[in-house]
Write a structure and sequence with these properties.
The structure holds three protein chains of three kinds. By secondary structure, chain A is an alpha/beta fold. Chain A folds into two domains: 226 residues, Rossmann fold; 50 residues, RNA polymerase II/Efflux pump adaptor protein, barrel-sandwich hybrid domain (OB fold (Dihydrolipoamide Acetyltransferase, E2P)). Chain A has eight helices and 15 strands. In chain A, a hairpin with a 2-residue loop joins strand 1 and strand 2. About 2% of the residues of chain A have low confidence. Chain C has one domain: MetI-like fold, CATH 1.10.3720.10. Helices cover 78% and strands 0% of the residues of chain C. Classes of the chains: A alpha/beta, B mainly beta, C mainly alpha. Chains in contact: A-B, A-C.
Chain lengths: 296, 134, 231
């Protein structure tokens, strides 16, 4: 569906580098762009949306040329963003401050679209009660939901999402993940998403491209990309020792993992080598953890 | 952490899991892993690996008879005992190497363990982790 | 005692016409200036700001030269269109537009520049033309600046003296605006009339500025109220 071969010079924190990517996205696929900040993920999305022009390459979507660089005396062709019909969710949300939540969505509707779509989206994002509020009165998570709803309102043929779920709490994030999966599976929506969340990429993406300094380093299914190297089906976390207490012949270690405090047991010999404040790796066999489902 | 070093003698695997046999001296010990040779490159017959297992996962038996599903059982000698209220640490000699078992003091008393006793150490294959030393 | 009201009426006519013209050319110009990447942008910005620092008499002097029937500009205008700008109301309008230009352009340009660029991007991605983006997204979000620009330009035109004196002179019902009338009345020691004109200008200017600050404060209060609401 999408064939992209794009090159563009970028100015990063550590000097100039080249965005140079070559990839394809199939109809109905959800592709995740994964990588550190400043490696060109957002620029790539902007090039796909037509908001920035690549210097070289070509971009075709559904057999329609969107971009073609200078080639054999032809002038570069860049289809304006207005004619690309993409849904774009901006990292800063870019909600129109002069319009209410509802007006933001209505403004995004294409000509001839049913206004019922606005009500559906408001319900889907649980925004019904906020529909007459102005964006400046909303929290970050609420703005993010409005931005996602607005990107969907125009019934785009391609959805571009720049860190779409980063400001949401766990319950709402999980709910919206399910909605996006439903849209993708039922409506066959094609989407490209920037994400820093491995769990999210695992759950949503069919394919992930790991980017470094403008290049695609690895691409494949999330399982293929993320299981190379560090994670190999083992249960392992890094943490910091908060306390060491003797108990019988053993020692109890209190360790901070992420923002959770866990207690693990170490033998006397091990404990003599450890000090409060040390960073440790906690490893367990994948067989050991018992799994209990949490009720929402 | 107990550590025994040996060579991989056999690997049996399905799509996600492997049962790896490691030869240590005259014994063959096994570890079940949620890894396969395709993903984990160190899983090759002949490679030198270490079996790691936590002291609390070691059981001790005296005069064990009958059938048992456990495959990791090996003869050890009690070298010293550190007695606690609930748990006790038993330091063992396994063919010159030192291992430790942490068992309940009650269980230790039932076995009437004393320094110099010859006992059998038992570890489930699930509890064995492999580490690959370069 | 009755006073001649025509200088006051002429002042407000001049200020209204000038502000209307400034609004229609100043807003697009401010947008262009906020977005342009041309190399001589600093030169353009410097030219726009010149009336802020120049003595009004300098501006008036050059306009007088240009408008005079002996200058090619004034001569051409006279010959082609039959318009004489020196010592006429039309000439005053042109001079006021130039001298009040920065008061309209500056706040609006600053407001355009402070709008996040992603708003324009978002509208374009949603299929909106530049025109729709300008009128439905950009302009509604700089309303306070539009108000400030308009009021400042209006108030500054009312207060203009030097330029008017140079190119308008003191012709009743044509160029004799209130600020000139005050000067004229004082010259002829007619303090009561001067006081009348001055008082009206003083009170009116105060009321206009009061209204602007009042509206701005109301907007801020509304915002504070919204932000204090439970989420």
């Amino acid at each position: 569906m999408i064939q992209a071969h794009l090159k563009k010079r970028l100015h990063g924190v550590n000097g100039e580098f080249n965005l140079d990517v070559n990839f394809a996205v199939a109809e109905g696929e959800l592709l995740a762009l994964f990588g550190d900040s400043g490696v060109g993920k957002t620029t790539l999305l902007r090039c796909l949306a037509g908001l920035e022009m690549p210097e070289q390459g070509c971009l075709t979507v559904n057999n329609q040329t969107w971009f073609k660089s200078f080639h054999q005396k032809t002038i570069p062709f860049n289809l304006p963003p207005q004619q690309r019909h993409v849904g774009y969710m901006f990292q800063d949300y870019a909600l129109f401050p002069n319009m209410t939540v509802r007006e933001n969505l209505e403004f995004a509707l294409r000509k001839g679209s049913d206004k019922k779509r606005v009500d559906e989206l408001l319900a889907m994002m649980s925004l019904g009660e906020l529909q007459h509020r102005k964006p400046e009165t909303l929290s970050g998570g609420q703005k993010q939901r409005v931005a996602l709803a607005r990107a969907l309102a125009s019934e785009p043929q391609l959805l571009l999402l720049d860190e779409p779920f980063s400001a949401l709490d766990d319950a709402m994030r999980s709910h919206l993940h399910d909605e996006v999966l439903r849209l993708q599976q039922h409506d066959g929506m094609t989407a490209i998403m920037v994400s820093h969340d491995v769990g999210e990429v695992y759950k949503l993406a069919n394919r992930v491209m790991l980017m470094e300094a403008g290049q695609i380093v690895i691409q494949g299914s999330p399982a293929e990309v993320f299981s190379k190297g560090q994670t190999s089906g083992k249960f392992r976390f890094t943490g910091k020792i908060l306390a060491i207490e003797a108990m019988d012949v053993l020692h109890a270690l209190t360790v901070l993992v992420g923002n959770q405090i866990v207690r693990v047991v170490a033998t006397g010999d091990e404990a003599t080598l450890l000090h409060v404040g040390d960073s440790v790796l906690l490893v367990s066999k994948a067989f050991n953890p018992m799994v209990l489902k949490l009720e929402k | 952490m107990n550590k025994l070093t040996g060579r991989i003698a056999a690997i049996q695997c399905n799509s996600h899991m492997s049962l790896v046999d490691v030869v240590i001296g005259s014994d063959t010990l096994s570890a079940t892993l949620l890894e396969t040779p395709e993903v984990a490159e160190y899983l090759k017959i002949g490679n030198r690996v270490s079996l790691l297992f936590k002291e609390t996962e070691v059981s001790l038996a005296k005069n064990l008879t009958g059938l048992i599903s456990l495959r990791n059982r090996f003869a050890v000698t009690v070298r010293s005992i550190e007695r606690g209220d609930i748990l006790s640490a038993v330091v063992l000699d396994y063919a010159g190497k030192t291992l430790t078992a942490v068992i309940t003091t009650r269980g230790m008393d039932r076995l009437q363990l004393a320094i110099g006793d010859e006992v059998e150490a038992l570890v489930k294959a699930n509890e064995m982790a492999l580490s690959y030393d370069l | 005692m009755t006073y001649d009201l025509s200088p006051l009426l002429l002042t407000f006519k001049l200020a209204s016409v000038t502000t209307a013209i400034l609004f229609s050319i100043g807003v697009p110009f401010a947008w262009w200036l906020a977005n342009t990447r041309i190399r001589f942008k600093p030169a353009v910005e410097a030219m726009v700001s010149m009336p802020l620092v120049l003595p009004p008499s300098v501006l008036g002097f050059y306009l007088l030269l240009a408008f005079s029937p002996t200058h090619w500009f004034g001569q051409g205008l006279d010959r082609i269109a039959g318009i004489r700008l020196a010592f006429s109301f039309e000439g005053l309008v042109i001079a006021s537009v130039i001298s009040s230009f920065p008061f309209m352009v500056h706040p609006i340009q600053a407001a355009f520049q402070s709008l996040p660029h992603s708003l324009t991007d978002a509208a374009r991605v949603l299929g909106k033309s530049n025109r729709q983006t300008f009128f439905r997204v950009l302009l509604p979000n700089i309303k306070p600046a539009l108000l400030s620009g308009t009021v400042l330009a209006f108030a500054h035109t009312i207060g203009e003296f030097g330029v008017v004196l140079m190119i308008g002179g003191n012709l009743p019902n044509e160029t004799r605006v209130a600020s000139i009338a005050i000067y004229d009345e004082v010259e002829s020691l007619n303090y009561a009339a001067a006081n009348f004109y001055a008082g009206v200008l003083f009170v009116l200017s105060f009321l206009i500025l009061l209204a602007v600050y009042f509206i701005n404060r109301k907007k801020q209060n509304q915002m504070a109220l919204h932000q204090g609401m439970p989420k």
